[in-house]
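Service request form, structural biology core

Requester: graduate student, group of Dr. S.
Request type: structure prediction, single chain
Budget code: on file
Notes: please return the result as structure tokens.

Sequence provided:
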Amino acid sequence: MTAIIGIFLLNYVSKGDRLEPQVMSVFTLILAFLSFILILKSPFLYVWEKFAGDVEVGFVPAEGRGLNPLLQNYWIVIHPPTLFLGFSSLAAPFCFAIGTLMKNRYNDWIKFSMPWLLFSGMILGLGIMMGGYWAYGVLGWGGYWAWDPVENSSFIPWLVIVAAIHTMIAQKRSAAIRKQI
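Core staff response, request fulfilled:
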């Protein structure tokens, strides 16, 4: 998803003076790091390759237990990819922040990254709502997850995004947040 976001980011930064070399170089470093992780810890290994010595080569369970009943729901199919899209799109504001630091254009990062931060906040919020709806309907506890660590791993970054959006709006209106150099 990060690579797909990169296509849209390249289209966005190529219009006007939006620090294309700096932003895309930082984004390329992010993609290189993610590729490096995939090379080191491939999710496509067979069980007998991952756990050599513990499992025989070619091992297939006689009767699999199937998918966990909690995961046999429509919302759990679209909820994780939506969260991944929200987290992946956060690479763009980070790249703008680093790019503007590289060029000493401190005021520009707000106008460049605001649309990306709004998109990330909306998508991540939508994913959190879908996960809450799934938990409410499937878990049957009569409520949502409460303060489960899995829920917090998406909710706390969403709160930071909302705080960043509000801070950027205040900076645009009054220019009081940035320290005058």
